[in-house]
Design the sequence.
């Protein structure tokens, strides 16, 4: 199984924030980032309350909804992998659920099919999904990831509360994002900066 | 790379009198990928594409498309059977109707698939009996795309396909390109819209003043290219960042800004060993890569 | 299908030209009584009238101009319209593109030259006159040859000069200059207008206004050869052009 990095130069591969490992945190980070990035015109309270509602709404309809940001500093296939991983670990995608086919998903997101193919291929390597030739991909949730679903859900609540309180103290979205990233990826460096 | 290349040029050049439109171009475009051809207006994108398709005669160099020489008119013609082109002039024969133009184009290609053509015609909502002169620019572009896609060509070359289109049409066009690529067609399109290229392309070739200045994979760019901003409390050291992959080092006051194509973690470690007080590592988007690359050349 | 495209591109011009020529012939036949009285030196014979009006005068000159306009078109014009890229991307050689346009244009010039031969002999009995078929056909042949030269010249201009109007304007100027020069006494034999109308030629009798002698096959061959050279030159130029 190939280890997948998030693409950031990592001198520390794990961060024990809220007792969850790195990969899940990257997923949250992406969710926070994408949430903040797309609602720049809203007021602070709107930013936090509205997206949560719409995100939940979007996740419960249409089977699965993905969002990728081509201008982010992360390859699109990695963004997609993180979203799928997060969905599996929170239980939104469960064992046996069908993922969209490579071609339909590529057309839907309007990104190259090579990107989708790479994401699915890597996830298959990790044992998270299985590719059936011709009929798409299916989730193979292991017991380990199922048992984490509850932990991840609780952590999600705590993250939301923390972000809300930081906003209340007057920090901007960019600053909050930077703080999370610094903590995640360079806990040593951020110590130097202090 | 040999058989994997659908387009390869060797020192391709085009002069108009003393003006060098294209100079010593060594382009490599791989099979079954979406490759973006990015450049400013007048950088030489259209000239290059026209040379590939035999519309313009190169003044230097050679090239091969689908294994056939572009400078030999017979081979170039054979190659055009398998290549579909959508030009930047979004004009088609104004006096023909949609159906007449489809029938006209069909007569040149034995591998034409009429059911695909009709399906696309309905999907793009192109009225059969409307004259081309009565179609909007977006509809003409869709018609051009239909004429290209109904043949399942091996290579699709587009020159500024989204130029002058409204956002909805742009989205539909990108969607069609992605669909074409996922059916096995190689897509090569030129653009000066960075966001579009960034979105759908697997690779990007950047051309400036007729020269190829960059040829990179977008995934690699997202993963490895970094702008590292270092702050020092004292006069920052110059010439300390000669690390493989560092493209540019700028010193502004007490800050050092390093642009690295790889090994950004090595740069960070180096900065720490030199006593940097703040380190900020940020990704570089295609827009920044493009602007930095073409600025260097001027 | 390239011939279809060439036809469609010149269709409007051709149809209007055909209607004009045919229409004029009809008018000149139907109103021959009134028209014949307006000539200096007394009313001519019917045959003489037809020759003066149609085969020497108005209709012939109009024919030359209309054929010149038929020469407009080609890739350079398509470039101004924006369709050159589409045409050149088709898997056909540039020679085929040039040949298709030339063939269609020449066919159209030939058809236009036949129109008087179709109208005048048929309609003349209705005004109690008659015009010999043989004469009409021979004039049509002479017109076709002359038209070929004019078309070839306009065709060559269309390949060299860009823009929508430059080519026909240049061709027209060339035609005027040529006509002026050919009017000079020593250059009579190179006057295509005279060849088409028969004026001053050995095969035409002015008093009877009839073609009597054998047609000038040598001159016709030379004219066709010159035209052919112009088409080949146009093809060569097209082959070497950058679009």
Sequence:
């Amino acid at each position: 199984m190939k280890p997948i990095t998030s693409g950031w130069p990592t001198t520390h591969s794990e961060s024990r924030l809220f007792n969850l490992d790195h990969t899940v945190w990257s997923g949250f980070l992406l969710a926070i980032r994408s949430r903040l990035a797309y609602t720049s015109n809203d007021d602070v309270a709107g930013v936090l309350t509205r997206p949560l509602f719409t995100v939940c709404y979007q996740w419960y309809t249409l089977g699965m909804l993905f969002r990728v940001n081509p201008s982010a500093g992360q390859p699109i296939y990695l963004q997609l992998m993180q979203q799928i991983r997060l969905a599996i670990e929170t239980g939104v995608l469960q064992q046996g659920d069908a993922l969209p086919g490579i071609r339909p998903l590529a057309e839907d997101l309007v990104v190259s099919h090579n990107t989708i193919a790479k994401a699915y291929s890597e996830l298959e390597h990790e044992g998270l999904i299985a590719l059936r030739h011709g009929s798409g991909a299916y989730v193979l949730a292991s017991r380990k990831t199922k048992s984490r679903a509850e932990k991840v859900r609780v952590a999600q609540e705590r993250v939301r509360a923390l972000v809300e309180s930081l906003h209340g103290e007057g920090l901007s979205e960019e600053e909050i994002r930077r703080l999370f990233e610094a903590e995640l990826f360079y806990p040593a460096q951020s110590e130097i900066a202090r | 790379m040999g058989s994997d290349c659908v387009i390869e040029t060797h020192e391709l050049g085009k002069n108009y009198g003393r003006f060098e439109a294209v100079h010593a171009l060594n382009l490599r475009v791989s099979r079954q990928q979406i490759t973006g051809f990015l450049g400013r207006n007048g950088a030489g994108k259209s000239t290059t594409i026209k040379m590939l398709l035999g519309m313009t005669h190169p003044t230097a160099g050679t090239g091969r498309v689908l294994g056939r020489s572009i400078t030999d008119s017979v081979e170039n013609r054979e190659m055009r059977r398998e290549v579909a082109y959508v030009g930047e002039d979004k004009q088609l024969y104004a006096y023909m109707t949609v159906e007449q133009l489809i029938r006209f184009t069909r007569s040149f290609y034995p591998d034409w698939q009429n059911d695909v053509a009709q399906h696309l015609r309905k999907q793009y909502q192109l009225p059969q009996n409307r004259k081309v002169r009565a179609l909007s620019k977006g509809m003409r572009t869709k018609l051009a795309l239909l004429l290209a896609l109904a043949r399942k060509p091996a290579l699709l070359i587009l020159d500024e396909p989204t130029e002058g289109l409204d956002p909805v049409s742009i989205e539909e066009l990108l969607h069609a390109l992605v669909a074409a690529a996922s059916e096995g067609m190689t897509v090569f399109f030129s653009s000066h819209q960075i966001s579009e290229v960034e979105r759908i392309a697997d690779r990007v070739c950047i051309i400036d003043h007729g020269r190829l200045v960059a040829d990179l994979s977008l995934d690699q760019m997202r993963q490895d290219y970094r702008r590292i901003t270092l702050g020092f409390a004292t006069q920052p050291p110059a010439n300390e960042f000669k690390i493989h992959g560092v493209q540019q080092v700028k010193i502004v006051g007490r800050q050092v800004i390093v642009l690295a194509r790889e090994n950004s973690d090595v740069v960070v470690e180096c900065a720490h060993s030199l006593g940097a007080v703040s380190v900020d590592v940020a990704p570089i988007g295609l827009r920044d890569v493009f602007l930095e690359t073409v600025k260097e050349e001027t | 299908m390239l011939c279809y495209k060439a036809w469609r591109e010149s269709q409007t011009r051709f149809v209007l030209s055909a209607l004009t020529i045919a229409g004029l012939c009809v008018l000149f036949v139907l109103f021959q009584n009134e028209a014949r009285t307006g000539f200096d030196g007394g009313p001519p014979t019917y045959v003489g009238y037809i020759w003066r009006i149609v085969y020497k005068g108005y209709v012939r000159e109009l024919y030359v101009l209309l054929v010149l306009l038929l020469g407009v078109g080609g890739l350079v014009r398509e470039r101004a319209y924006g369709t050159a890229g589409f045409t050149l991307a088709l898997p056909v050689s540039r020679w085929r593109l040039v040949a298709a346009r030339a063939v269609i244009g020449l066919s159209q010039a030939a058809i236009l030259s036949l129109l008087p031969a179709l109208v005048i002999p048929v309609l003349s009995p209705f005004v109690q006159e008659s015009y010999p078929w043989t004469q009409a056909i021979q004039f049509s042949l002479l017109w076709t040859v002359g038209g070929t030269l004019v078309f070839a010249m306009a065709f060559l201009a269309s390949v060299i000069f860009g823009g929508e109007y430059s080519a026909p304007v240049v061709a027209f100027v060339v035609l005027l200059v040529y006509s002026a020069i050919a009017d000079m006494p020593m250059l009579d034999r190179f006057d295509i207008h005279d060849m088409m109308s028969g004026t001053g030629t050995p095969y035409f009798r002015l008093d009877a206004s009839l073609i009597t002698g054998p047609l000038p096959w040598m001159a016709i061959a030379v004219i066709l050869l010159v035209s052919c050279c112009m088409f080949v030159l146009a093809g060569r130029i097209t082959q070497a052009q950058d679009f």
Remarks:
- Chain B touches chain C through 32 residues (CB under 8 Å).
- Residues 47 and 266 of chain B are 41 Å apart (CA to CA).
- Chain B has a mean pLDDT of 90.
- The longest helix of chain B spans residues 167-182.
